[in-house]
Amino acid sequence: MKTFEYQARDRKTGGKISGVIDAESEGRVAERLHEMGYLPVSVKSKNTVALSMEIRIPGISDRVSADDLATFSRQFATMISAGLPLVRSLVILSTQVENKTLATALVKIRQEIERGSSLSVALAMHPKIFDRLFVSMVRSGEVGGVLDRVLLDLATTLENAASIRRKIKSAMTYPVAVLILVVLILTAMLLFVVPQFKSIFASLHGTLPTPTLILLDISHIMVSYFLEVALVVALLIYLLRRYIRTEKGRIVKDKLVLKVPIFGKLLHKSAVVRFCRTLSSLVRSGVPLLEALDITKGTANNTRFESAISAMQNGVKQGVSLSTTMAQHDIFPPMVTQMVAVGEETGEVDTMLAKIGNFYAEQVEAMVASLSSLLEPVLIVVLGGVVGSMVISLYLPMFNVIKLIK
Questions:
Q1: Per-residue model confidence as pLDDT tens digits over 71-123
Q2: φ, ψ at 59 (rounded to 5°)
Q3: How much helix, strand and coil, in percent to the nearest 5, is found in the chain?
Q4: What would the CATH number be for the domain defined by 153-405?
Q5: Smallest Cα–Cα separation from 103: which of 92, 113, 94?
Q6: What CA–CA distance (Å, rounded) separates 250 from 244?
Q7: Positive or negative CA dihedral for 212, 226, 253, 269?
Q8: Pick from 222, 177, 176, 175: nearest CA to 195
Q9: Which stretches are annotated as coiled coil (predicted)?
């Protein structure tokens, strides 16, 4: 099996297209192009040596973002609804998408479909790109014959999830930047500024105030054992990250995160949005409820939500309603539980979940919008207080400088 580059024209529109295809020979490539409704213009073997020279950075260049998947899903849905066959749609998309990793995956997916696999099975062969949520919704669309609608729902779900993540990141960026700035300023003062004052204080031969002595001792430790201190800090960070990756560490971390002032509420509401929208999309697409809950649990990213969703799964198996189980977990606000109960009574659980998700998404947006105006004065006070306390500690002996000189 070889890889060939081709250029062809669409017989219906006359448009020119190009791409890559795997086949035994150039003749086989031409046959496939004819089968897909294209008129071959040129076919040549792909230079695999040149491709091997391409620089790829694992985790960066190989990453397929939610925005990439959303764009692909929306374009794919448009082609399917227009009546284009799956294979032909994938050929066009593999030449249009900008992400090289996604383009390569689409070529392989198209090859699997040509061998007789279904679209969902072919997608499942690339779990790093298409997660269980994506594959399950596509499978339900295939079974129900509404693949184009499901793909549009997927695009909307991915876009909403990406939007929420961007809002959370924007809210966290400012305080994190200020924290890093405070650490850098403190380190610079302890390493370069405070030692200059130490020689001055030593020449005065007097008793220094307690805050000044503490500051001088910390500076001495930093200057004399900087490498050791850096290694200890790095080791503590490493051990903390290792602990967080354990089951017990995740539970402790998730509990503490939700209790952080302001940000805890923001993360809690964003998790509710993710839960409601994901479960709504899956139920609306026809995914069985138990499987939908299992997939939603995998996207929760919080052990408290995962535990609650597991309880909901067990309740459904025993014939208990979702709202009854949800009411037993305070992680779900009362409004969510009540609206789910109404949805179960009316047979519109997916609609109610979507409305709840939209409601809390608006609250997240409002919180993010107000955070910058709320945090800016607080962080300025914190920064000024930390730096100011160090400056005051250094200048306290100066208030008694005359007595020290005598």
A1: 899 899 888 888 888 888 998 898 888 888 999 999 999 999 988 888 999 99
A2: 85, -15
A3: 75, 5, 20
A4: 1.20.81.30
A5: 94
A6: 5
A7: positive
A8: 222
A9: none
